[in-house]
Hints:
- The protein is α+β, with helices and mostly antiparallel strands.
- The protein has helices at residues 3-18, 28-40, 154-159, 187-206, 270-283, 298-304, 329-343; strands at residues 44-47, 53-57, 61-71, 76-82, 88-93, 105-109, 115-122, 143-147, 167-170, 175-176, 181-184, 212-219, 237-241, 244-245, 257-263, 266-267, 287-291, 310-318, 325-328.
- The strands form three sheets. Strands 1, 2, 3, 12, 13, 14, 15, 16, 17 and 18 form a ten-stranded mixed beta sheet that branches. A six-stranded antiparallel β-barrel has the order 4-5-8-7-6-9.
- β1 and β2 (53-57) form a beta hairpin.
- The radius of gyration is 21 Å and the shape is globular.
- The chain starts with a helix and ends with a helix.
- 46% of the residues are buried.
Amino acid sequence: xxxxxxxxxxxxxxxxxxxxxxxxxxxEEVARVVEGIAHELGYxxxxxNKGNITIDVPGRESGKTVGLCAHVDTLGLMVRxxxxxxxxxxxxxxxxxxxxxxxxxxxxxxxxxRSYSGTVLSLSPAAHVFDDAxxxxxxxxxxxxxxxEVVRSREDVEALGIRAGDFVCFDPKTVVTDSGFLKSRFIxxxxxxxxxxxxxxxxxxxxxxxxxxxxLIFSVHEEVGHGGATLPRDLSELLIVDMGCVGLxxxxxxxxxxxxxxxxxxxxxxxxxxxxxxxxxxxxxxxxVDIYPHxxxxxxxxxxxxxxxxxxxxxxxxxxxxxxxxxxxxGMKNTIQLAALYLECE
Length: 346
């Protein structure tokens, strides 16, 4: 692996994905970004009816098809209603930690193609005015968007074209540090998606092919629980590439690839998980094995939808998931290396 070029491509790709707004249900633009990168690398791309993106990579041997799957949809918000004084009340898309959104800049996208900037704020936003400015709950009933337009009423907001059901996307604040950290909202799971696209570049640049026919899938409804429901039916194995958890009694760090043995839906495939552990040990990949108690993935959804596939899960360790997330180049590099080993690239 050419570490310098790989790192530059990986972080540039992550930046392109992370700075493209894509809450579940509003993913067309990020899908185009993924497709554009794949086409630049010379790969064929398709989409299913629900919008999942698939990149086909022919293998050296026929008879078995495996899949790698990351998701490019993110957490977000939607306009629930408009107040009499022109603020936007909100409903969650997925599971953002709402108190972390107080003070975040955002964009509102209307159904007719317009966009406006704003700020998510507590309904008691000023310490000089409200006795409960520090203590008021930060939830759907007590957070609203202050729009950066001259509005004094519901009618003024509606004149801008803003209605209930419009998407509200908060600023990911993406930064890449000289010390190798990627910090941003939505590293879950655009960090993993960037790892998969970087793996594609390495295959192309080094003239490598996986052992089996391989489908790299980028799902677009994972955060709302049905991204994996329409994965390809011809997969023998499925490797989910999603964020690894960091904290409490978990052993993973931001510098490692995490191998998940069990999440909130139950254990992953024993043989696949054991194989990933052995590949890591035998090839010097820095890894950890953990249990994610508050976690589900596209694999669990695929199983519930009746997909007859064995599945395992890996991903870079991510700190502060669903909040102000952070991972490191080393964790992403280890994820790419383990995915390449799993595919038996030559």
